[in-house]
Every structure is written in structure tokens, then in C-alpha cells.
Specification:
Elements (H helix, E strand, L loop, with lengths): L6 H15 L1 H8 L9 E5 L8 E6 L6 E6 L6 E6 L4 E6 L10 E5 L8 E6 L10 E7 L10 E4 L4 E6 L7 E6 L6 E5 L6 E5 L8 E3 L1 E5 L7 E4 L5 E5 L4 E5 L6 H5 L4 E3 L7 E6 L6 E5 L5 E5 L9 E6 L7 H13 L3 E4 L10 H12 L19 E2 L4 H4 L5 H6 L9 E5 L2 E5 L15 H12 L4 E5 L21 H4 L3 E4 L5 E6 L2 E6 L16 E5 L4 E7 L3 E8 L8 E6 L5 E5 L13
Parallel strand pairs: 5-9, 10-14, 23-24, 24-25, 27-28, 28-29, 29-31
Antiparallel strand pairs: 1-22, 2-3, 3-4, 4-5, 6-7, 7-8, 8-10, 11-12, 12-13, 13-15, 16-17, 17-18, 18-19, 20-21, 21-22, 23-33, 26-27, 30-31, 30-32, 33-34, 34-35, 35-36
Length: 588
């Protein structure tokens, strides 16, 4: 809301203006990998409805669509714009009150796979409101080239919040795409306070916010978390700050850490900032009629570097699993994902903690086992397998892990990689053939992914030369056509790399249970190995993904290496033994 600046804010403004002027050099000193170009106007907001834009967020499903709203004094409505500033729609929020709307965010909600808009009625210039509200609505379907429409939004949820330490003025609303938690950052405290409401957010009752800490600075008027959760933007009237958020780091911890000053062009009353749908560039918008929508392009690519360990055929408490776990631990990966073989032999509740938690608890979120404290943010992403389903309804697995989506099949983003974890067992309720509900979900999610790399994980191998576990034909979906860059499966207790119609398929089942032999080599087989137990290490940045298989006895020398550039076409694949097409690696 428009207010006269105090002397303190005026001085702060001079300081931040100086920082802004010198921001390029300061950013270079702090993080030479982060660079943005000066702002460019993509268009001016058209019409007379949007006159006090006090929040901005980019749609993640609808290309070049942005959502905004007016400050206090308007009716309860939000607007859809395209990047040229054209009005695409006016959407009323029935039952809501627009007391002092200050920010808008986008994130997950109660229904899996649905993006929700969160509208923050959180302004309180005089610090007198006994409670504040956030309205949550499913994001309407809008196209960037459509004619303007007017509609009411159904399914409006009112989330009522109170501060634990008295009323606060705030203009920054954040929703964590990784956890669904909601955050509010105060505006007028000498050190801005960070408040959280945990997911799931309660309707029809009042929730007391948690104060998670304080961050350096004051006067924050807007913010946004990148779609993959690895960066946070915070805006004052005079500057935009970027806070890196490494995987596994809480939002408040990132905000309490050092920031990077990024370019900003001063606006009359700039209270809006958002990442674009890919998390690559950011946009700002000011209050006032026909204001410019400005884009600040990033030099290079934003995707954070990530290291993932992929294991399969591992969940059998013993020396084999212990050796592989030690190998993985030495990599200090950002996450561990599995391709099944989680809990031998019957997926029982009585064995799951000894088979998994004993070795990997430090990666498991919401961990309730006996081998450690686990982690606040989940970093362990398993794929269901045949053994898990041997227990009725895979109940021990589903109760042990806290995973995205329906928890049987799901997706998540880590740095430059968008992972898609499937349930390949025939007992999956949503099916396992190429026309199944699960397959349609994968096809649609791959098509909408904006990440540099898309990796599919599953247990039963579509292609394999293993003598014990042959290929699973129903799982030969058109994954390359759908947009996958790599497929990793388990099932066979071997390692194999195959090239099928221009797409790399890996079999990775040497996680510690046992070692199997090979039958007749399948068409497209490029490299095989069954000498010792081991695991895959996947490293990616914005331009390349490198996949290496390591055996426990080979130290830092990979058995097999695959390099995939961002365009998605594997090149430079090599193995320790210079394996050619269909040529077996010698046993160790």
C-alpha cells in the first residue's frame, strides 16, 4: 500500500540504491555463476482495471501467462495478463474480502497435480489486524492468446492466520513448491521476520504462524520461490535480491544466508516480482496505470548443479548393501533415488527399517525408524517394486515414506533434472501399459516439463539382457517421443546400458542384494557389468548430464559413463573397458 517513507526507509533507500548501482560487481564477488541482464520492457499493462498491481506470479502450466491483483480498494478479483500486458481475464473470488491484498503466489495444494493461486490479504499498515487471510484457488485455465473473459472462481478456500507475537505489516507471500508450506515475511521490523504455516493449510479455523527466524534487511514488498525451489527472490522498493537455496535447505535458512544483488530498474511503486515459468528470468511490475512489465533475462541458465545417487536391488540388510551405502555416502549426494529392490523379500513392515533406514535414514524425510533422526526435507525417492506389493496394498512402503503425489508414482525436480518415478508392477491400480492412466499422466507431465533434463525411474526393465529378469514388454512406452532423456530401471541384479531408438535405457540392480548373470544380449545393448555391487551417480548442470556407474571396489574410476547434452541426445558415451555395441564388459 502507498505510504510516506520514514527517515529510516529513506536512508535505507539510499544505501540500497548505491548497492543497486554497484550490484553487478557485488554479485560477481559473491557468485560468478549468477548473472542477469538489465531489464527490458515486454509490454505495458492494458486497460483501466489494473491500476495498483501489488503482486505478480507466472503460471507454470500456461506459457506466457501472469497473474496479478490490485492493492486495497478493489473488489476481490485477480487478473490474467500475457507478457505483452494484454488482459486475458478477470476472475472474481466469491466470498473473499479485499482488505489489503499485497502479494500472490503459486504452489501445490490439496489436489495432486493441480497448481493453486494464493492471494495474500496480509497488509496491515497500522499493525492492528487481529488476523490476516490468504485465499487459495485452483489456477484457472488461460491461454496467452485468448480474448478477455470474466468469470467467478469456484472452490475458494479461506486460510485465516494470526501471528504468534502480535500484528505485523507484511507484503511478501511465498509458497514452497517442494513442501507446500506458506511463508510470510514482515515489512517494518528492523530485521524482517519469517513466518511459516505448515502444509496442509487448514480451512475453517485459525492457524497460528510459526516465527522461523529473522533475515537481514527490512522493507520487503514482494518475493517468489523458483519453480524448482532452488532460488528465492526478495524485493524492496529499491532493489531485488536473490537468495540461493541448495537442495535440502529450508526456506528460512536460505533467507538468513547471503543474498546476491540482481539488476532492477526503479519503478514508481514497485511491489511485484516473479520468476518466469522455468525459473530462468524474472519480471517486475509497478502500481499505476499502464505500467511496463519488465523482464530481466538471465545470462546462461539457472538450473542448479545436482548430484543424485541411483540405487536398485539394495534392500537386504547385509555387507553388500553396507558397501554400496558407504560408496553413496562418500559422494555426499543431494538425493538418493531407487529403481526398486527396496525391501526384500516380501516388503514387510518388520524388515523395512533394517533394510532401508539403517543405511539411508539421513536422506529420508519424516523418518520414524530407529536408526537416526532422518532429515527435515525428504531426499529419498524410491520406486515401488514387486516385493513391496507382496504386502497387502504395499502398505508398509506407503506408510514408511512421505512422497509427492499419490506416492505410488510421482515426480519431483532437483536442480537441472525433472525426475519421474513410476510404479511398474501389474498390481498398480492405474495400470502399467502405454494407454493406462499412469502412462497418460507421464506423457502429459513430460510434455509440460521445463527442466533441462527429464529422467524416468522404474523397477521392471523395458529392455534387459539379464538371465533372471527378462524385459517387460508392456512397459515399452514411447518415452523418447514423449520427451524423456534417460530411463533407469532395476529388476535384474546387473548393470546394463542399452540404446533403443535414440534413447538410453540403463539397468541398475547391483545395490547389494545379489549379483546375477546375463543371457543372450538384447538388441541395443551397449555395455554390461556384473562384477561387484555398485550404484549410479548422476551429475547435471544446465548444459549436460553425466551418468556414471561405480563398483564398490573401483574407487573413483567409473565402470561406465554416459554423457547427455541438454538437447537430449546422448553423445560421448564411454565405458571403462571401451565397450562397443553389444560388447560385454569383462567380469572383474
Amino acid at each position: 500500500m502507498r505510504m510516506a517513507l520514514t527517515v529510516r526507509h529513506f536512508i535505507l533507500g539510499l544505501v540500497l540504491a548505491w548497492i543497486l548501482f554497484h550490484g553487478e560487481s557485488l554479485a560477481a564477488e559473491r557468485d560468478p555463476s549468477v548473472r542477469f541482464l538489465p531489464g527490458e520492457t515486454t509490454g505495458n499493462v492494458e486497460g483501466s482495471d489494473v491500476v495498483e498491481a501489488s503482486g505478480l506470479v507466472a503460471s507454470r502450466k500456461h506459457l506466457d501467462v501472469f497473474w496479478t491483483h490490485n492493492d486495497s480498494g478493489d473488489s476481490a478479483r485477480i487478473f490474467a495478463l500475457n507478457k505483452q500486458g494484454a488482459l486475458l481475464g478477470t476472475f472474481n473470488i466469491p466470498g473473499a474480502k479485499a482488505i489489503d491484498w499485497e502479494d500472490i503466489a503459486l504452489g501445490p495444494g490439496p489436489a495432486s497435480g493441480v497448481d493453486y493461486l494464493y492471494i495474500g490479504d496480509i497488509g496491515d499498515n497500522n499493525g492492528k489486524r487481529s488476523s490476516i487471510r490468504v485465499y487459495r484457488v485452483p489456477e484457472p485455465v488461460v491461454r496467452a492468446d485468448q480474448e478477455p473473459v470474466t468469470a467467478d472462481i469456484a472452490d475458494v478456500a479461506t486460510i485465516t492466520l494470526v501471528y504468534p507475537d502480535g500484528p505485523r505489516d507484511a507484503e511478501t507471500l511465498l509458497v514452497d513448491p517442494l513442501t507446500g508450506d506458506l511463508f510470510i515475511v514482515s515489512k517494518r521490523d528492523s530485521q524482517a521476520r519469517i513466518y511459516r504455516a505448515r502444509f496442509p493449510l487448514a480451512e475453517g479455523e485459525t492457524t497460528t504462524l510459526e516465527c522461523m527466524g529473522e533475515m537481514e534487511g527490512t522493507g520487503f514488498v514482494a518475493g517468489d520461490i523458483s519453480p524448482n525451489g532452488t532460488e528465492i527472490l526478495m524485493k524492496t522498493y529499491f532493489a531485488v535480491l536473490l537468495f540461493p537455496r541448495p537442495l535440502g535447505t529450508d526456506v528460512w535458512t536460505a533467507l538468513e544466508s547471503d543474498s546476491i544483488v540482481v539488476p532492477y530498474k526503479f519503478e514508481p511503486q514497485g511491489e511485484s516480482v516473479t520468476f518466469d515459468r522455468e525459473g530462468r528470468d524474472y519480471y517486475t511490475l509497478s502500481e499505476g496505470a499502464n505500467q511496463p512489465l519488465r523482464r530481466f533475462p538471465r545470462k546462461g541458465d539457472p538450473a542448479a548443479q545436482v548430484t543424485a545417487a541411483i540405487i536398485g536391488g539394495y534392500g537386504f540388510d547385509g555387507p553388500g548393501e553396507a558397501a554400496v551405502a558407504a560408496l553413496v555416502d562418500g559422494w555426499n549426494p543431494d538425493l538418493v533415488a531407487t529403481v526398486g529392490g527396496n525391501n526384500y523379500d516380501t516388503g514387510a513392515a518388520s524388515t523395512i527399517d533394517a533394510n532401508i533406514g539403517k543405511y539411508y535414514q539421513r536422506f529420508i524425510g519424516n523418518y520414524g525408524g530407529m536408526f537416526g533422526r532422518g532429515t527435515a526435507t525428504n531426499r529419498f525417492f524410491p520406486a515401488l517394486d514387486t516385493h513391496d506389493w507382496q504386502s497387502a496394498g504395499a502398505a508398509p512402503y506407503l506408510e514408511y515414506f512421505t512422497l509427492p503425489g499419490n506416492e505410488r508414482y510421482y515426480d519431483f525436480v532437483a536442480g537441472a533434472i525433472h525426475f519421474f518415478v513410476l510404479d511398474s508392477d501389474p498390481r498398480e491400480p492405474d495400470g502399467v501399459d502405454a494407454q493406462s492412466k499412469q502412462a497418460r499422466w507421464l506423457r502429459d507431465e513430460l510434455a509440460s516439463s521445463a527442466s533441462p533434463f527429464q529422467v524416468v525411474l522404474l523397477h521392471r526393465a523395458p529392455y534387459s539382457s539379464g538371465e533372471e529378469q527378462s524385459a517387460d514388454v508392456p512397459l515399452r512406452w514411447p518415452l523418447r517421443e514423449w520427451g524423456a532423456d534417460l530411463v533407469i530401471a532395476g529388476s535384474s541384479h546387473t548393470y546394463e546400458r542399452l540404446e533403443i531408438d535414440g534413447l538410453s535405457y540403463l539397468v541398475n540392480g547391483l545395490g547389494g542384494r545379489r549379483i546375477d548373470g546375463f543371457g543372450e544380449l538384447a538388441a541395443g545393448s551397449q555395455a554390461i557389468y556384473n562384477g561387484e555391487h555398485g550404484a549410479l551417480r548422476v551429475k547435471a548442470d544446465s548444459s549436460q548430464m553425466t551418468v556414471e556407474f561405480f563398483a564398490v571396489g573401483d574407487g573413483d574410476t567409473p565402470i561406465d559413463t554416459l554423457q547427455i547434452p541438454r538437447v537430449g541426445k546422448p553423445e560421448g558415451a564411454s565405458t571403462k573397458a571401451e565397450a562397443g555395441a553389444g560388447e560385454a564388459l569383462p567380469p572383474k
